[in-house]
């Protein structure tokens, strides 16, 4: 959709498309994230559709908040409690994965502490809580290899401390 992306333009465009497709009387709900502009846009759309008597219960159920977005917001807010450690782990993973030599050193450390290296270090996408969970899970699994790497690589300086691992 071409700009502008304000609430009035969004409502007009969606309403026009619903009418063009002939489905304006078949809409029960729209799932969106919790942005305030989305609430405003849905309020305008609801008014337009109610003028055509097109909504069940006058559109009381039109705007459904995206559960995945809500869960992501909750988890991201919770992760703020350990932000410093999460950043540190991201940096460590980037460091290890940043060169083939460091990857090999890390694999050697895994062998030294009797860890399988099949799981692999996972890098997260910070806006997806489940990827951060998988990153932290893999980091916890390899924490003893990280301790070993810290002893053998003078440039590996950000290994979490035992108390930071407890937070994770």
TrEMBL record:
Question: Which superkingdom heads the taxonomic lineage of this protein's source?
Answer: Eukaryota
Q: List the PANTHER family hit by this protein, alphabetically.
A: ZINC FINGER BED DOMAIN-CONTAINING PROTEIN 4 (PTHR46481), ZINC FINGER BED DOMAIN-CONTAINING PROTEIN RICESLEEPER 2-LIKE (PTHR46481:SF6)
Its protein name is: Uncharacterized protein
Lineage of the species this protein comes from: Eukaryota, Viridiplantae, Streptophyta, Embryophyta, Tracheophyta
């Amino acid at each position: 959709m071409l700009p502008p992306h304000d609430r009035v333009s969004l409502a007009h465009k969606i309403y026009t498309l619903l009418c063009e497709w002939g489905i304006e009387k078949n809409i029960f709900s729209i799932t969106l994230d919790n942005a305030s502009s989305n609430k405003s846009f849905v309020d305008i759309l609801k008014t337009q559709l109610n003028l055509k008597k097109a909504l069940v219960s006058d559109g009381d159920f039109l705007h459904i908040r995206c559960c995945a977005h809500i869960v992501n917001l909750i988890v991201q807010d919770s992760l703020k409690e350990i932000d410093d450690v999460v950043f540190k782990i991201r940096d460590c993973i980037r460091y290890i994965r940043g060169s083939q030599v460091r990857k090999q050193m890390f694999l050697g450390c895994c062998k030294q502490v009797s860890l399988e290296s099949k799981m692999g270090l996972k890098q997260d996408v910070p806006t997806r809580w489940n990827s951060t969970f998988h990153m932290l899970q893999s980091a916890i699994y390899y924490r003893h290899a990280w301790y070993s790497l810290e002893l053998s690589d003078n440039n590996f300086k950000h290994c979490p401390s035992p108390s930071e691992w407890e937070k994770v």
